[in-house]
Specification:
Blueprint lengths: L1 H5 L6 H9 L8 H11 L4 H5 L3 H5 L6 H23 L8 H12 L6 E7 L5 E9 L9 H10 L4 E7 L9 H16 L3 E8 L5 E3 L11
Parallel strand pairs: 3-4
Antiparallel strand pairs: 1-2, 1-3, 4-5
Helix pairs in contact: 2-3, 6-7
């Protein structure tokens, strides 16, 4: 009833899970069952999404049928996100768009990767490419290689994206220097560096352009 009246965005994570769980137990209503499930995942939906069916079934009030329903819903969410990651006919309107696009490619990695998204004049994605694979706490952002690929693709803009397996999204000194160097190099050939986004874990990411401290780079 609440969803019908106010829309899906008005519901909490527990309430959305409760819709899939459908019924509670003699001791707990359905929302309380959903809250218990969330607590098992540390309050994070991505942790619940990664739970095996056996762990879902360990929650009082969630049997095999409900566990399958929950797992299927999260798998649909993953596939929806993957479609966005694969589809290159996307207009980049915000860092959140980039985050949603790249999370399926970078989530759960135990090493850093540097990706570049290439944009046309209208800010539509015309391609994306993994430029380097690094270690636990660093990866190479080769200015010349990225500049060459941007020119090859006739890009009007680029967005740098890399992940932090440590889950800490704050930029390192190396990240800051790489961003400044990239912005200068792109500007010299008339290509804009639109943003540099660091993806952490779950819903965590950092946008240089949205940062009051570093937006002057752009």
């Amino acid at each position: 009833e609440k969803m019908l009246e106010k829309g899906t965005s008005a519901l909490s994570n527990a309430e959305l899970l409760a819709i899939m769980i459908r019924t509670g137990t003699g001791d707990m209503n359905v929302v309380d069952v959903a809250r218990t499930l969330l607590q098992m995942g540390g309050g994070r939906l991505n942790e619940v999404a990664d739970m095996p069916l056996e762990k879902l079934c360990s929650v009082n009030g969630i049997g095999r049928s409900k566990a399958v329903t929950i797992a299927a819903a999260f798998e649909l969410g993953r596939r929806c996100a993957m479609e966005l990651a694969i589809n290159e006919k996307v207009s980049v309107s915000s860092p959140k768009t980039v985050f949603r696009m790249m999370l399926p490619l970078l989530k759960g990695l135990d090493h850093e990767e540097c990706w570049v998204i290439f944009l046309n004049r209208a800010n539509y994605v015309i391609g994306k490419e993994r430029m380097s694979v690094g270690g636990l706490d660093s990866t190479v952002m080769d200015v010349k290689s990225i500049l060459r690929r941007a020119l090859d693709r006739k890009a009007s803009g680029v967005i740098l994206v890399h992940n932090h397996p440590s889950r800490i999204t704050a930029p390192s000194k190396m990240d800051i220097n790489a961003t400044i160097d990239m912005a200068d190099a792109m500007e010299s050939v008339g290509i804009r560096l639109s943003d540099h986004i660091i993806i952490g874990h779950g819903d965590d990411y950092f946008s240089f352009r949205k940062s009051e401290k570093w937006k002057h780079i752009f």
